[in-house]
Amino acid sequence: MQEKARQEAISIGLLVTAEKNAEKALKEFFKSIGYRVNVTFN
Question: Are 30 and 36 within 8 A, CB to CB?
Fold first, then answer.
């Protein structure tokens, strides 16, 4: 059971990192063409 919990914690951490990277990329892209955006994940 500990291994499963560890794997889930790793997955959650990777998801958070991916979301932050995606948010940064989207904001930078839209900023370069004159827009300001809010990015949210569900």
Answer: yes
Taking the C-alpha atoms of residue 39 and residue 22, their distance in angstroms, rounded to an integer, is: 9
**CA 20/CA 23 separation, integer angstroms:** 5
How far does Cα 24 stand from its chain's mean position?
Answer: 8
Q: Which two tokens stand for residue 10?
A: 């790793």
For residues 37 and 30, is the Cβ–Cβ distance under 8 A? yes
Residue 33 C-alpha from the chain's centroid: 22
What local confidence, expressed as pLDDT, does residue 15 receive? 93
Judge if pTM exceeds 0.85: no
